[in-house]
Amino acid sequence: MEKNSRGGKREGAGRTGRYSGGTTVIRIPKAMKTDVLAFVDILSDWLSEGKGIKQSSSKTCNSERKSAAKMMHLLSVWEMERQEKEKKQVEDKRQLSLF
Q: pLDDT by residue (tens digit) across 23-45?
């Protein structure tokens, strides 16, 4: 039987992916969608900078990216403070157990 060369799955067919390493599907709250997309755009631009990787168009506009960057800064400050408080609590608990 002769193999048909039309149709079906072919090596190299289809569009190329926007992100190297593949993608995955996740569920996020609708209220966070724009911020998450902006974060992905910012991160992928940062990771590809200077590597000569051509970026396809972003899914977010500059104002959305700016808003997400501001939020990420505030979030990182909050997280650093949270970790310091936790570290202090653990140390205080350790000190109390010595008595």
A: 889 999 999 999 999 999 898 88
